[in-house]
Design goal:
heterodimer; A: alpha/beta; seven-stranded mixed sheet; six-stranded mixed sheet; 14 helices; 37% helix; B: five-stranded parallel sheet; three-stranded antiparallel sheet; 10 helices; 44% helix
Chain lengths: 480, 287
């Protein structure tokens, strides 16, 4: 992989010191950092398995304390505060994230393993933009089409995944606060550092204590949050499996719920597609963030007449991807986030072999330490194969072919998921017809994996319900 | 004095896929007015009938959703036209079913007709109210539109045999969903007759499938059915709602629990909004 290019890349590492890594991180409750009731754990750099910092873990008592603090903050100050004042706090947060963008980007890449190019150019700017966008809604809620005097719900419990740690925190916190709710956020077990740094930013922005609480911890903390009687709303982003458990737990309760779950997106390439752009889109669709993306274009559906050309061009492009040190500015593919995730990616890829699909990866030396998986393409895949049905959540692409648009639609829709889809064709009328036929919440036409705070995001079917982003994203946090 | 003419009684049946079958199980159950006088024997739908209804609803979905919004609005308006022509019949059935005065029953039929007209007008407007063009920070055209959730299983209200039934069915059909609707268990006859109105209103077969029978028997099959996308619990017994919602979670169904059952209230957008998905489409802008 990129070992025989005419001009070798010199290493271009981002300075690790920028992360301002601390040796110990506390949980953030009622405006202060402190130790939790659980045993502190080490969070590691997945690219080399070295410890980064010790992180306090919340326990059940901390969940109680955080929910109580959030309730007090909601009832006594935040819920009743004029929207334009809440707005200014959120604008402050947006600006503070921008000010500390480099620190946050390096910290994110250290804790998550994603390439610095992505954390620097995507995660952190989008997180700031999300706060900036929702800040402006805080004093305009009556114009959101959700009633003349929409009301906050109360305390929102928010559980986020490890693939975009800071960005997911922003997606959750910004609309909740804009709508007048207070929050208890649980970052993922393996990636707590940027959410806890965001908590310190929020403290520096002088938000009233208890408006935002951040509890690092494992699944039992999430479960305690979901089951807590003081919670008015649960917002969860993560696996469909856990999403179903949460929906079951909350069945029959008054707690509002929004779920953003798994996906198995079809990225559909027609014979008239601009080939070079489509190949870039396929690569971006599945190898962005090592494929740790719920809306990843993990199923390539390519029209039979151009399948050989597309696959050849795709392999040639993937040969040039650079895998390695996440902090190197030339790196395209970073580390898999955890040993557990690496095991899952390996297991499902092995199933692909066993089911008779043909596996291809570029010649590619993997670092000896850390969690690594090469970009991988399976051809000869059918819709019945597990690698065409199950979310792998790694840099693994399954290639299927089709002959007619109708067949492409049928194959794209034949999954319980419905989060996203891609269409590549020069024919405008076909784009719009396809976009309508695809049962997915986000459709990218002649592009893929674009995100914006003004753009509603969320799934159909078993990919969840509720939207994040845009005017629609407010609906999850407002009542009448 | 001439002998009084013998009336031709109606057999009350199910409505599945545009046909009016008896229950495949061969079962029926006696339906009485509140005073206990037998009105008729209604079909008692089985699990198999419910599954057939879901199949019919799924099959009808692409066509109904693929129709233009104007067309859906005109078909729903046609339901109101057909119902208006049979208002005395329905009023008599509502009066018998609910034990209310004929004048009150007629008022409910009229309110039902007017509600259908109201929803008919929403069919080609809701997307304008619920959709948006989104100003993203980049060279992309980006828009969001509401689309139907898919096949919706509705447990119709138990008390309001016609107005309640219409008030839960019309918003589901309006946005392009297809429905399997379980009528009031004790008062199913107005709904069974409304199914005949639906069948003569250019509503394609399978778009609205009406089951009569025991709600507690049918609801679990619909709640757990893998090809049902949403569940309206309005007519479910309160004690049964949690178990049904839990079962629905296994396929991440959208579960709707009403705030109240005051059918005289202005319905607002709540039910229209409950059974739609927001789709967002991106495309680059460039020369």
């Amino acid at each position: 992989m990129a070992t025989t290019t005419a001009f070798e890349y010199a290493p271009a590492p981002e300075a690790r010191d920028s992360a301002r890594l601390r040796s110990h991180y506390g949980i953030f409750v009622d405006g202060a950092f402190r130790d939790g009731a659980g045993d502190a754990v080490q969070t590691i750099d997945p690219s080399n398995e070295q410890a980064l910092a010790e992180v306090a873990q919340a326990g059940a008592a901390d969940v109680d304390a955080a929910v109580a603090a959030a309730r007090r903050a909601h009832d006594s100050v935040w819920g009743a505060m004029p929207g334009r004042e809440r707005a200014k706090y959120l604008f402050r947060i947006a600006r503070a994230i921008q000010e500390r963008a480099r620190e946050l980007a390096v910290l994110e890449s250290l804790d998550n393993g994603k390439p610095i190019r992505e954390s620097r150019d995507v995660d952190i700017p989008l997180a700031a933009a999300h706060f900036f966008y929702y800040a402006g809604w805080a004093d305009k809620l009556e114009h959101a089409g959700l009633g003349a005097a929409p009301r906050s719900l109360g305390v929102a419990g928010q559980i986020i995944p490890w693939n975009f740690p800071l960005l997911m925190a922003a997606w959750k916190i910004a609309p909740a606060l804009a709508a007048g709710n207070t929050v208890v956020l649980k970052p993922a077990e393996t990636t707590p550092l940027t959410a806890l740094t965001l908590a310190s930013i929020i403290a520096e922005c002088e938000l009233p204590p208890g408006v935002v609480n951040v509890l690092a911890g494992g699944p039992e903390v999430g479960q305690a949050l979901v089951e807590h009687a003081g919670i008015a709303k649960i917002a969860f982003t993560g696996s469909t499996e856990v999403g179903k458990l949460i929906q079951r737990t909350l069945a029959g309760s008054e707690t509002r719920l929004s779920l953003e779950l798994g996906g198995k997106a079809a990225n559909i390439v027609f014979e008239d597609a601009p080939l070079d752009q489509a190949v870039e889109g396929i690569v971006n669709g599945i190898f962005f963030n090592q494929g740790h993306v719920c809306c990843a274009g993990s199923r390539l559906l390519v029209q039979e007449s151009v399948a050989d050309d597309v696959i050849a061009a795709l392999k040639s492009r993937v040969e040039t991807l650079r895998l390695g040190d996440p902090l190197d500015k030339n790196t395209d593919i970073g580390a898999i986030n955890s040993a557990a995730q690496l095991a899952r990616v390996r297991e499902l890829s092995d199933v692909g072999d066993a089911e008779g699909a043909e596996r291809w990866s570029p010649a590619c030396a993997l670092p000896e330490r850390g969690f690594w998986f090469p970009p991988t393409i399976f051809t000869g895949v059918s819709s019945a194969h597990r690698i065409a049905r199950e979310e792998i959540f790694g840099p693994v692409l399954s290639v299927l072919t089709f002959r007619t648009p109708a067949e492409a639609v049928e194959k794209a829709n034949t999954t319980p998921f419905g989060l996203s889809a891609g269409i590549w064709t020069e024919k405008g009328s076909r784009i719009l017809w396809m976009a309508r036929q695809l049962r997915a919440g986000v459709v990218w036409a002649n592009t893929f994996n674009r995100f914006d705070p003004a753009s509603p995001f969320g799934g159909y079917k078993e990919s969840g319900f509720g939207r994040e982003g845009g005017r629609h994203g407010l609906e999850a946090y407002l009542g009448r | 004095m001439a002998a009084e003419r013998l009336r031709v009684r109606k057999t009350y049946k199910l409505a599945i896929g545009g046909a009016f079958p008896r229950s495949e199980s061969g079962r029926s159950y006696p339906v009485s007015d509140p005073a206990g006088v037998l009105l008729a024997h209604a079909a008692q739908a089985s699990r198999k009938d419910a599954r057939d209804a879901v199949v019919a609803a799924r099959k009808a979905f692409p066509g109904w959703w693929g129709a233009t919004a104007l067309n859906r609005g005109q078909v729903i308006y046609r339901i109101a036209e057909m119902l208006d022509g049979r208002r005395e019949q329905l009023a008599a059935e509502v009066s018998a079913a609910e034990g209310c005065a004929p004048g009150s029953a007629l008022g409910q039929v009229d309110e039902s007709i007017d509600r259908i007209v109201w929803y008919a007008g929403w069919a080609d407007k809701f997307a304008q109210v619920a959709g948006s063009a989104n100003p993203v920070a980049g060279p992309y055209f980006n828009f969001s539109v509401p689309e139907p959730t898919g096949v919706v299983a509705i447990l119709a209200p138990q008390q309001s045999s016609l107005l309640g039934f219409v008030s839960v069915l019309a918003p589901v059909l309006c946005t392009g969903n297809t429905a399997v609707i379980v009528a009031s268990e004790a008062r199913p006859l107005p709904a069974a007759s409304l199914a005949e109105v639906l069948a003569t209103s250019d509503l394609p077969g399978g778009v609205a499938n009406v089951l009569t029978g025991f709600t507690a028997e049918l609801a679990p099959w619909l709640a757990s059915h893998r090809d049902v996308n949403a569940l309206d619990l309005t007519g479910a017994d309160r004690a049964a709602r949690t178990a049904l919602a839990r079962s629905a979670a296994d396929t991440v169904k959208r579960v709707f629990v009403p705030r109240d059952e005051d059918w005289s209230r202005d319905p607002g957008l709540e039910r229209l909004s409950a059974f739609v998905e927001t789709k967002t489409v991106w495309h680059p802008v460039g020369v």
